[in-house]
Amino acid sequence: MKANVGVKRPHGVPKLAITALSVILASSVTYANPSNRVVLVPPTNLPTLAQQSGEAMFLHDTWDGRTLLYVEQRQGAQLAIFDVTDPAHVKGEGSAQLNAAGPFDFVAALGLRAELVRFRQGQGDAVLDLSRVPTLKKVQGIQTQTSTVAAANGGSALALPTVDPAMDQSVQDYRVLESGKSPADDHIVEVKQVRQEMTNAGTGTTFLLAEKGLFLIRRPALETAPEVYLNTAG
Question: Are 160 and 179 in contact (CB under 8 A)?
């Protein structure tokens, strides 16, 4: 279910350079291949819920072919949902109120309609049910002290990362080199306090969860020819 994610950096996982896109995301400058135009989409150009800061996010492919981006907001109390199937026309799908004990991180997919989450500060794990109205559920069988979830989703055991997401909740500033109509029009835009980055391999779109909300780094050439990214990413 995570096959469409090229790069995902939750808390506690080292930052990765997106070299397959000829883009280096770091605290300095993001450089783009001149043959591919780069477009930075700010929160103000996205649905209203994208203009809120968030704690964590993850991508999910639905049974009907859409790609949804879930963003945890308000310290785990709210889950904003966006349809990012077409990066040029991101749609708001509303939000769900969660009965969460506090902020959490997304750990792994459980089947087709659930996601394992891990609360920060060692407060345990839960399952996010991605039904019509997403809900958090404490499920027996989750072993928080090991790297295995035993039948938490009614199926076989699932190996999990051993890194504790609560260990690293650092943020970084990004500088994105955005393409203009000509090289002379290229300019650098700073994105402050980025908490997480994630790339959809299907469209080459990078999502930045930052202090002022959700930013998108679009690569229009890859949206129409995703095999370019898939071939280089492999």
Answer: no
CA distance 203 to 220: 8
pLDDT tens per residue across span 199-226: 999 999 999 999 999 999 999 988 876 5
What's the rounded Cα separation, in Å, for the pair 115 and 107? 7
What pTM value is reported for the model?
A: 0.73
- State the amino acid at position 76 in one-letter form: G
Distance CA 183, CA 193 (A): 27
> 145: which residues sit within 8 A by CB, 6+ positions away?
none
Count of CA atoms in the C-beta half-sphere (13 A) of 89:
2
Q: Is the dihedral of CA 85, 66, 10, 76 positive or negative?
A: positive
Q: Which residue has the tokens 């095999």?
A: 227
Find, among 128, 112, 4, the residue nearest to 70 by Cα: 128
Q: Report the Cα 87 to chain-centroid distance in Å.
A: 14
Least confident among 36-40, 44-48, 90-94, 227-231: 227-231
Specify the pairing of strand 91-97 against strand 78-83.
Answer: antiparallel
Count CB-CB contacts under 10 A for residue 184.
Answer: 7
| Spatial distance between the Cα atoms of 208 and 9, rounded to a whole number of angstroms | 10
Residue whose tokens read 């492999």: 234
Q: What is the C-alpha separation between 188 and 195, in angstroms, rounded?
A: 20
The answer to whether the Cα torsion of 131, 134, 137, 141 is positive or negative is: positive
